Amino acid sequence: MRKNSIKNTRINMEVQRELSEIIRAGIKDPRIHPMTSVVAVEVTPDLKYCKAYISVLGNEDAAKSTIEGLKSAEGYVRRELARRINLRNTPELRFILDQSIEYGVTMSKLIDEVTKDLHETDEEEIE
């Protein structure tokens, strides 16, 4: 089976949806930030392993504590995933902090600053 097959894509989407629901409503750990989202999920074609990319809207300490909380609740999350999704194997979960959204916001702010400065210097040259 190819890595990007239609079946694998559907499994990734279903696992992502269920993981989001489990993290949002199932885990009561206070370390997990309320603004936590599952950005992407990659399940291997043999359904043995799963990388879940997690994004946390907050500071760096909140992100680290959220990942620690998710790692400690990994057994519960895997059991809930097995109960909700009927797969041949329930994948072993690995939570990875994804900072791409924060990086994109930072880069957008920097671009806005540069373009604002360019417009100001253009207006000064015109006068």
Structural features, described:
This protein is of the alpha+beta class and 127 residues long. It contains four helices and three strands, in the order αββααβα. Strands 1-2-3 form a three-stranded mixed beta sheet, covered by helices on one side.
Brief write-up:
By secondary structure, the chain is an alpha+beta fold.
Secondary-structure map with pairings?
Blueprint: H1 6-26, E1 36-43, E2 49-56, H2 60-72, H3 74-84, E3 92-97, H4 100-126
Parallel strand pairs: 2-3
Antiparallel strand pairs: 1-2
Helix pairs in contact: 1-3
The number of helical elements comes to 4
**Strand composition percent:** 15-25%
- C-alpha end-to-end distance: 65 Å
Work out the number of β strands: 3
The gross shape turns out to be elongated
Radius of gyration over all CA atoms, rounded: 20 Å
| Rounded average pLDDT | 87
**Helical residues, percent:** 55-70%
- The spatial strand order of the largest sheet comes to 1-2-3
SSE arrangement, N to C: HEEHHEH
